[in-house]
Design brief:
Chain lengths: 410, 390
């Protein structure tokens, strides 16, 4: 009983605090304060998350690579104080980025060179507006939230191109071209991979999509979309497209450091560079949030009896899990070449997403099948996606296999 | 294929990919990669002409690390050059030392005791492990991993470098070989530690290969990329794993049988396609063969001195004459050509650097591939700029 009371309070606590502040303001400014508080809350929460994600990335990569990662930064003005496991590293990095000299190349387009980092952060922040962070926490309850998300999210590539073009650097220009080729290729599978969700849930509103996943079989088997054949395939396709969309390894071609030095970031330094860095992680977090919302039940608890934990904690936990997965992938994989990247998109991802759409349609048509027919439904649905996957995959990697070698006779 | 097949061969002339330059295709983009670039393995520069992302022309530019090595060696004593040879191929100072010692021993007719010969084989093969591990790690960095394979390779390299430090006092600049033997005799503890390391090495290779050799992206990025024709390679003087990856059987450990290599049982792996993947696999397979050689060497290591007692350290003046000593360094044929006029200094001192000569066909390998591939091809050739520029 007490738990339920605490829970119901925690669930609405952020809203209650906001309303308290708004009530305290004079009437004509209330709408403004209301929105400003929402914006500040998003900036504060995801800004903090951004500060610690690179630290987590460096530490996790360090562990993957048989080393420790940053663990030296302690407290300021305390030489031999506690080291705090390097947790103050983000603040040291921020101070460093802010105090560095801001170098603009003489031949650069000054206005665009300045505008690009500002725009990229703005665009990547816009996407947070429609994500349902909790049962009652939806900043903007748009009906067409999904469409809005993709519109705002793909605008970041414009800023990347702007940066590459304005820098007047050949590496930056190549990176800008790559970024455009990449976004044109991967926007399609990214959107197509979530269309099945819209088909099944029957809505473009993200909150309604989350609500559609809020059931449990026997109280512990959640009805998240990822636990259906079409949902699982859609989740994997979404994951790969999201990696490409946020320029993460193995699709980090625009900033391929072994070829293009730093790609579109080559001519940026100091805080402008940090802004790009921030935008990359904001974009990654937003896409993780979208993936969680669409496939992993959003803010829903995995088991019915775990519902006492506030929904926004579940959401953040799942987003952090997705971020750690992205970091793990970065620590493991090699980079594709640009032609292989586009070939993967057009010859593999797009056909599979279209087939998956048909798969979801089948799933929706056979919703009434029960008993043994349920098994048939699962089998057919799995076959619809696995067979094309194997065939297309074979075609994609035709002629490539590990080799056996001969040895000289003597 | 044998040498007689090569007589009918005419080298291909110039680029095989023609640049398209018309109003529709627009201009070509000339990018000067290096000398400050993360993937040129030192201060190397490639002037790359790109049509989109495809390389239509590539001009290697080197000399940024030239330090007059050969002329300095002609103005110092024979022994005085030994520390300088460390700096040629700074990843493999043990083998560079050996090549120089071999040339001087040939010049002076100096004998080397058995234990020193075994020790030289042990150190040379350990150097091969160091070099190939590093190369493979750096190759994966060029392929776009975030340092993970490189740091796993470095973990093993560190263990060997620790042993080198324990033996010679220096991790990379070992300065260990002398004319007529080696500088110090390893302790039994050192030999036991080295033997243990070598026995554990295949486990590292297995771990490495499980993750990477059959990786789909790895196959897509390296198979069929940067193909080097065997005839062209022989005509250009390419040696080492690069040549063997093209399928030509030429390993100086077998051909010359210098040192005590004829006493060891090992095989020479050969590639069939001559592409980047073959060059990568040659390194992995050679490391496995090196482990075999090392195990035999630790088993058969004889007692005795490591230095010929009659060898002359001070006032060393070989008789007038000339000599060419060469070994199979991890990168290819490393040779030293010396002319003596009877004075304490060599009259002429010339290095045949495998890195430089293997680099000469870089353009042929890169043409028609993308800029991303050219970085990987350069990585698979295995150069050290200290040796290229001297």
């Amino acid at each position: 009983m007490i738990i339920a009371a605490i829970d119901s309070y925690l669930e609405v606590a952020p809203l209650a605090w906001r309303d308290a502040v708004v009530q305290w303001c004079p009437e004509p400014t209330q709408w403004l304060v209301h929105h400003l508080i929402t914006i500040v809350a998003i900036l504060a929460v995801f800004g903090t998350l951004f500060a610690f994600t690179p630290l987590a990335e460096r530490k996790l990569l360090g562990r993957l690579q048989n080393r420790l990662g940053p663990n030296r930064s302690g407290l300021p003005w305390w030489q031999n104080g506690p080291k705090l496991w390097g947790l103050t590293q983000p603040f040291a990095d921020a101070v460093k980025a802010l105090t560095k000299e801001d170098i603009v190349p003489a031949a650069a387009d000054k206005l665009l060179h300045f505008l690009a980092p500002v725009l990229i952060v703005a665009f990547s922040l816009l996407t947070f507006a429609v994500l349902p962070f909790g049962r009652h926490l939806v900043p903007v309850g748009l009906d067409a939230a999904l469409l809005y998300f993709f519109a705002a999210g793909s605008a970041t590539e414009l800023a990347i191109f702007m940066a590459g073009w304005a820098s007047r650097n050949k590496y930056s220009l190549l990176a800008a071209m790559r970024a455009l080729a990449q976004v044109i290729s991967y926007e399609l599978p990214l959107i197509l991979s979530v269309v099945p969700i819209v088909l099944i849930a029957g809505t473009l509103s993200l909150q309604d999509i989350v609500l559609a996943q809020g059931f449990w079989t026997f109280g512990f088997l959640p009805h998240w979309f990822v636990f259906t054949p079409w949902g699982f395939a859609g989740f994997l396709l979404f994951l790969v497209s999201a990696l490409a969309e946020s320029n993460r390894s193995p699709f980090d071609l625009p900033e391929a450091e072994s070829e293009l030095i730093a790609g579109h970031l080559t001519e940026y330094s100091g805080f402008k560079y940090a802004l790009f860095f921030m935008a990359e992680y904001f974009g990654l977090t937003a896409l993780s949030g979208l993936g969680v919302t669409l496939f992993l039940g959003g803010w829903q608890a995995p088991c019915a009896f775990l519902q006492f934990i506030p929904s926004w904690l579940w959401f953040m936990g799942k987003v952090i899990g997705m971020l750690l997965l992205f970091i793990w992938i970065r620590g493991t994989l090699l980079r594709l070449r640009i032609d292989q990247l586009t070939r993967l998109a057009w010859q593999f991802m797009v056909p599979l997403t279209l087939i998956n759409l048909g798969n979801a349609a089948f799933w929706s048509l056979t919703a009434g099948w029960t008993g043994p027919l349920q098994l048939v439904r699962w089998g057919v649905s799995l076959a619809i996606i696995v067979i094309p996957f194997v065939l297309l995959g074979r075609r994609l990697s035709a002629g490539r296999h590990p080799r056996t070698y001969r040895y000289a006779a003597s | 294929m044998s040498v007689s097949d090569l007589s009918s061969f005419t080298p291909s002339s110039g680029p095989t990919v023609r640049a398209v330059k018309d109003p529709f295709h627009g201009d070509l983009l000339e990018v000067s990669m290096g000398p400050q670039h993360p993937s040129t393995h030192g201060v190397f520069r490639m002037v790359v002409t790109l049509d989109g992302e495809v390389v239509v022309k590539l001009k290697p530019v080197f000399g940024y690390l030239h330090r007059n090595h050969e002329k300095i060696a002609e103005n110092t004593t024979y022994l005085g050059s030994m520390p300088y040879t460390d700096r040629l191929d700074y990843l493999c100072s043990m083998t560079t030392n050996w090549a120089y010692a071999l040339a001087v021993e040939k010049l002076a007719g100096q004998a080397v005791p058995d234990r020193a010969q075994y020790l030289r084989v042990i150190l040379a093969e350990m150097t091969r492990l160091v070099n190939h591990s590093c190369l493979v790690g750096f190759l994966f960095n060029d392929l776009g991993t975030s340092f993970t394979p490189l740091l796993y390779a470095f973990r093993e390299r560190e263990k060997i470098l620790d042993l080198f430090e324990a033996l010679s006092g220096s991790r990379m600049m070992c300065n260990f070989q002398r004319f007529g033997g080696c500088r110090v005799d390893p302790t039994p503890e050192w030999l036991a530690a080295a033997s243990r390391l070598v026995d554990n090495y295949p486990r590292f290779l297995d771990e490495y290969e499980t993750m990477l050799t059959a990786n789909e992206i790895m196959l897509a990025r390296t198979q069929g990329i940067g193909i080097l024709d065997a005839k062209l390679a022989v005509n250009a003087g390419i040696t080492g794993p690069c040549l063997r990856a093209s399928g030509y059987n030429y390993d100086l450990r077998k051909v010359d049988g210098y040192g005590f290599y004829p006493r060891f049982d090992f095989k020479v792996p050969l590639g069939a396609h001559g592409d980047t993947y073959d060059r990568y696999m040659m390194r992995i397979l050679e490391m496995r063969e090196s482990v075999k050689i090392l195990q035999q060497a630790f088993r058969d290591l004889p007692g005795g001195p490591v230095m010929d007692p009659k060898a002359k350290i001070r006032g060393f003046r070989p008789k007038a004459g000339e000599a060419y000593g060469r070994i199979e360094s991890p990168k290819g044929e490393l040779g030293f050509y010396l002319i003596s006029d009877g004075t304490p200094n060599p009259y002429r001192y010339r290095v045949r650097p495998p890195s430089l000569i293997n680099l000469t066909l870089l353009e042929e390998m890169c043409l028609g591939h993308t800029i991303a591939d050219s970085v990987v091809i350069l990585g698979s050739v295995d150069i050290v700029l200290g040796e290229v520029d001297r």
